From TrEMBL:
It is a single-pass type II membrane protein. This is Heparin sulfate O-sulfotransferase. Pfam families: Sulfotransfer_2. One of its GO terms (cellular component) is Golgi membrane. Belongs to the sulfotransferase 3 family. Keywords: Disulfide bond, Glycoprotein, Golgi apparatus, Membrane, Signal-anchor, Transferase, Transmembrane, Transmembrane helix. The keyword Glycoprotein applies.
Length: 366
């Protein structure tokens, strides 16, 4: 129902009354307004004041929320930076180096740059140059590596088989690296090394010193020093401590070596491309290997240990060795590692040229 004066507002005041209120207010005669108009005006003022107060409170709450979000963002960045520093300070690299794969040359670089880059280098010396540890010593080794905090960051190196840290229930796992070599090249190098030594320690008398028999003659006579089974070393080094790993020709050992190489090794290089191995490590692990590549190229470390006298085997000797199952399996592991290394190398060097980056976006919930 409408009043005689026209439609009413929510205070029961007709439109003509509202216009009359406006005229009184403009003319400065608001004190002469009827009581109902004064009450309506007061109610409207309180309503707008409440609205303004609510808006002001919302603005303050928004400012506080934004400030808290900015503070959390700053704290998160600080935490991430702190964790990054902690991770680098706690990092451990294990290089379970295969003999006669240029490991001495590589470690010469590591020893030269360790002080300037702030990490420790430790050689693992096992009694009698044994390549496997007892179960008790495996546990002790894992505990030393995991909890010897004062020595971190650290690079451990030694001629020993792969140790799977997951087996021993520790939280932090080391980064494994290694270098692999063509199996026959490695065997020939070791054969002559035992007879003539090297230029690293030229005056040290080796076990077969004085034996002038060539590798070709050794193969022709069927001597034990050139037995193809002697090539069975790189597979067990990647396979680990299981007894099957050390049985020449064991198919499971080859499969396990491949699995470990793929799943547990950060990088496996090849002797023939050692400089590229060093470059990739510098790109990916600069905390340890900053400046390693230039040092390797400019110093005498690129050929730190050369066998004093060595003759390449004849084609007939090579053909005979390649008939053996052990050579085929060891070479299969080498080719497998080589393919992975070439893939990593291409992506790493391409990234340097193209400047690959990655970012995070569309993060939910906000």
């Amino acid at each position: 129902m409408q009043s005689v004066g026209g439609p009413q507002n929510r205070h029961g005041i007709t439109e003509p009354s509202q216009r009359r209120y406006a005229r009184y207010a403009v003319s400065g005669q608001a004190s002469q307004l009827p009581d109902n108009l004064l009450l309506a005006a007061a109610a409207d003022s309180r309503m707008w004041w409440c609205v303004v107060m609510r808006l002001d409170e919302s603005r303050k709450q928004l400012e506080i929320t934004v400030a808290r979000m900015q503070l959390r963002s700053v704290e998160q960045r600080r935490l991430e930076n702190k964790l990054s520093v902690l991770d680098s300070k706690n990092m451990v690299i294990i290089y379970n180096r295969v003999p006669k794969t240029a490991s001495t040359s590589f470690m010469g670089v590591a020893y030269d740059i360790c002080k300037q880059n702030g990490f420790h280098v430790l050689h693992i010396n096992v009694t009698g140059n044994m390549h496997v540890l007892t179960l008790a010593n495996q546990l002790k080794f894992v505990q030393n590596v995991s909890y010897w905090h004062s020595i971190k960051p650290a690079l451990y190196h030694g001629h020993m088989a792969f140790v799977n840290f997951e087996k021993f229930g520790v939280n932090q796992h080391p980064i494994y690296i290694n270098i692999i070599r063509k199996p026959l090249d490695r065997l020939v190098s070791y054969y002559y090394f035992l007879r003539f030594g090297d230029d690293f320690r030229p005056h040290l008398v080796r076990r077969k010193h004085g034996d002038k028999m060539t590798f070709d003659e050794c193969v022709e006579l069927g001597e034990s020093d050139c037995d193809p089974n002697n090539m069975w070393l790189q597979i067990p080094f990647f396979c680990g401590h299981a007894p099957e790993c050390w049985k020449p020709g064991n198919e499971w050992a080859l499969a396990e070596a491949k699995r470990n190489l793929l799943n547990h090794y950060f990088l496996v290089g090849v002797t023939e491309e050692l400089s590229d191995f060093v470059k990739i490590l510098e790109i990916t692990l600069p905390t340890f290997f900053h400046g390693a590549s230039s040092h390797y190229e400019s110093s005498n470390k690129s050929h730190l240990r050369r066998t004093a006298q060595k003759m390449d085997p004849s084609p007939s000797t090579v053909a005979q060795i390649q008939k053996s199952q052990v050579w085929r399996m060891e070479n299969e592991l080498y080719e497998y590692a080589l393919d992975i290394f070439h893939s990593v190398k291409k992506k790493s060097f391409d990234s340097l040229e193209k400047g690959q980056i990655f970012t995070y976006e569309k993060i939910r919930p906000k």
